[in-house]
C-alpha cells in the first residue's frame, strides 16, 4: 500500500479520538436521587371491615434514578399523637396493643423497584369492644430510613383513626322499583330483567346467598302506603338460584329474574290486568351480614290495558243530535266528534226541542276488542256537558248485548272521567246516557229531554 495513503488514513482516525472522549453521558443529569415516601400520609380514617382480622396496607413509594435500595422500618410515634391532640384540642388515645400487630416492621425496596407496603393486622373483634368505652383511639405511625436513602419528612408520618364497618350484602336499589316494568302483547312470552345486588366490601371467599319471595313485605308496604298492589302470580316469574353467589373480590352482580308475560297477557284469551309486585328478600348469606335497609326489593310489574286507537272506528247508530235542527247544521256538532281525538270539537244533543232520554250511541270498533275501562271528556267550557248517569253495553253481533258497567258523574264541573268496566270482549260498544244534571223541564225529568255536549269517548283494553 502506498505510504502516503496510510499516513492520511491514520491522521483521519486519530483526529476523531478527542471528539469521542470529549462526549459525556448526560442522560442522568436531570433525574433526582432516590427518595421514599408514604402514598397516603397525615391524619386519615382507616376503613376496617369486621372480619375478625383485617389487613390494612401502608403503601410506600420510591421515586428517582433507581440506583439505591431503600431499607425502612415502622415505629409507633407517641409524639405524633401528642402533637395532634394539642393542635386539635382532641383526646385521642393510642390504640391498645391487643387491637393490632405489624405483619412486617421492616421493608426493603430493591434498587429497581418503585413501591412496596407495610401491612398492619387489625383485630376488629377487639376494636369493636372499644366502642363501649366511649373513647377515641388512633394509631400514630412513622416510617424511618435504616440506610442513607432520602426520606421525605412531610410524607413519613400517618395517624390512623380506625373506622369499623360491618361487611354486608344488599340490593343495590332496595324498596319499590322506581320505574315499573310495563308488559304488552309485543313482549316475548318470557324475558329477563336484571336486579342488582352488591356488597360494601370485596369478598375474600366465594359468597353464597339465598333470595326468597316475601309476601309479608308486600302486605306491609300496602298497609303503610294505602296502596293495593297485587302479588305477582307464582307462574309469572322465575328465580335462578344458580346465580346467587359472588366470586372472590366481586362486589356486585346483576341477577336475572324471568318474567313470564304469557301467563299474564296471552292473546287471545288471558288478560290479568293489574299492578303487580314481586317482593324479594335476601334470606341468608354464607358470610357476614345482610343490610337491614337493603334486604328487600319490590319489583313493580305493570300489566295495564292501553288506550285503543279509534282512527277507523265509526258511530253507526245514535238517537239525538243538534244538527237534526236545520239552523244548527253548520255547527257540525255530530256524533262522529266523539272519536276525532280533538277536545275542541264535540257532539251536542237536539237542542231547542230535546228528545226524551235515554240517549245512546253504537260504536263499531271494526274488530273484537278486550275492554277494561271507558273514559268521557266534556268540552272545556265549564257550563257544557250535563251528562250525569248511564251504562255501557258490548256485543259481537248487534243483537245480543251484555251490560259491562254503570257510570255516574257527581258534578258537572269536572271535565274528564274514567270508569272501570267488567273486562269484556266484543266488536260493538253501546254508550247510554240515562240522566242529566238539568232537563228541558226539571219537573218532568228525563222524558222531557236535556241539552248536553260531549267531546270524546275513550276506550282502554287490548286489541
Walk me through this protein's architecture.
- The structure is a single chain.
- The protein is mostly beta strands and 463 residues long.
- It folds into three domains: 35-165, hypothetical protein (bacova_03559) (Immunoglobulin-like, Sandwich); 168-304, hypothetical protein (bacova_03559) (Immunoglobulin-like, Sandwich); 314-462, Sandwich (Jelly Rolls).
- Helix content is 11%, strand content 45%.
- The protein has four helices and 34 strands.
- The strands form seven sheets. Strands 13, 14, 16, 17, 19, 23 and 25 form a seven-stranded mixed β-sheet that branches. Strands 26, 27, 29, 30, 31, 32 and 34 form a seven-stranded antiparallel β-sheet that branches. Strands 2, 4, 5, 7, 9 and 11 form a six-stranded mixed β-sheet that branches.
- β21 and β22 form a beta hairpin.
- The longest helix is centred in the N-terminal third of the chain and has 20 residues, at 3-22.
- The radius of gyration is 41 Å and the shape is elongated.
- The N and C termini lie far apart (109 Å).
- Mean pLDDT is 91; it is low at 3-14, 16-23 and 25-29.
Question: What is shown here, in short?
Answer:
InterPro entries: BT_3987-like_N (IPR013728), FA58C (IPR000421), Galactose-bd-like_sf (IPR008979). It comes from Sunxiuqinia elliptica. With 463 residues, the protein is mainly β.
Properties at a glance:
463 residues, single chain, Jelly Rolls, 11% helix, Immunoglobulin-like, 45% strand, 3 domains, seven-stranded antiparallel β-sheet, 4 helices, mainly beta, disordered N terminus, F5/8 type C domain-containing protein
Amino acid at each position: 500500500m502506498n505510504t502516503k495513503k496510510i499516513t492520511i488514513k491514520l491522521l483521519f482516525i486519530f483526529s476523531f479520538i478527542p471528539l469521542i472522549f470529549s462526549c459525556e453521558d448526560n442522560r442522568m443529569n436531570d433525574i433526582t436521587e432516590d427518595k421514599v415516601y408514604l402514598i397516603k400520609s397525615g391524619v386519615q380514617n382507616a376503613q376496617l371491615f369486621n372480619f375478625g382480622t383485617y389487613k390494612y396496607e401502608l403503601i410506600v413509594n420510591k421515586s428517582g434514578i433507581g440506583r439505591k435500595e431503600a431499607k425502612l422500618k415502622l415505629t409507633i410515634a407517641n409524639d405524633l399523637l401528642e402533637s395532634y391532640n394539642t393542635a386539635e384540642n382532641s383526646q385521642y388515645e393510642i390504640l391498645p396493643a391487643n387491637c393490632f400487630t405489624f405483619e412486617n416492621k421492616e421493608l426493603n425496596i430493591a434498587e429497581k423497584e418503585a413501591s412496596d407496603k407495610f401491612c398492619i393486622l387489625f383485630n376488629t373483634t377487639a376494636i369493636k369492644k372499644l366502642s363501649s368505652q366511649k373513647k377515641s383511639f388512633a394509631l400514630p405511625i412513622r416510617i424511618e430510613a435504616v440506610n442513607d436513602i432520602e426520606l421525605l419528612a412531610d410524607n413519613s408520618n400517618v395517624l390512623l383513626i380506625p373506622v369499623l364497618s360491618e361487611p354486608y350484602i344488599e340490593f343495590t336499589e332496595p324498596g319499590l322499583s322506581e320505574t315499573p316494568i310495563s308488559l304488552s302483547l309485543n313482549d316475548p312470552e318470557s324475558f329477563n330483567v336484571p336486579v342488582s345486588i352488591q356488597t360494601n366490601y370485596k369478598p375474600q371467599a366465594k359468597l353464597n346467598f339465598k333470595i326468597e319471595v316475601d309476601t309479608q313485605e308486600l302486605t306491609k308496604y300496602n298497609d303503610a302506603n294505602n296502596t293495593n298492589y297485587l302479588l305477582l302470580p307464582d307462574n309469572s316469574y322465575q328465580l335462578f338460584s344458580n346465580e346467587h353467589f359472588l366470586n372472590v373480590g366481586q362486589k356486585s352482580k346483576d341477577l336475572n329474574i324471568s318474567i313470564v308475560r304469557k301467563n299474564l297477557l296471552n292473546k287471545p284469551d288471558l288478560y290479568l290486568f293489574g299492578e303487580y309486585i314481586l317482593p324479594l328478600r335476601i334470606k341468608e348469606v354464607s358470610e357476614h351480614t345482610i343490610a337491614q335497609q337493603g334486604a328487600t326489593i319490590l319489583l313493580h310489574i305493570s300489566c295495564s290495558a292501553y288506550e285503543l286507537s279509534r282512527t277507523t272506528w265509526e258511530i253507526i247508530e245514535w238517537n239525538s243530535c243538534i244538527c237534526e235542527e236545520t239552523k244548527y247544521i253548520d255547527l257540525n256538532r255530530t256524533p262522529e266528534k266523539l272519536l276525532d281525538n280533538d277536545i275542541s270539537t264535540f257532539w251536542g244533543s237536539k237542542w231547542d226541542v230535546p228528545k226524551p232520554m235515554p240517549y245512546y250511541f253504537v260504536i263499531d270498533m271494526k274488530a273484537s276488542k278486550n275492554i277494561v275501562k271507558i273514559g268521557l271528556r266534556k268540552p272545556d267550557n265549564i257550563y257544557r256537558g250535563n251528562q250525569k248517569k248511564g251504562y255501557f253495553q258490548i256485543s259481537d253481533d248487534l243483537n245480543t248485548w251484555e251490560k259491562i258497567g254503570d257510570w255516574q258523574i257527581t258534578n258537572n264541573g269536572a271535565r274528564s272521567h274514567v270508569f272501570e268496566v267488567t273486562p269484556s270482549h266484543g266488536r260493538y260498544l253501546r254508550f247510554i246516557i240515562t240522566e242529566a244534571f238539568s232537563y228541558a223541564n226539571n219537573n218532568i225529568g228525563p222524558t222531557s229531554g236535556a241539552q248536553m255536549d260531549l267531546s270524546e269517548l275513550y276506550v282502554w283494553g287490548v286489541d
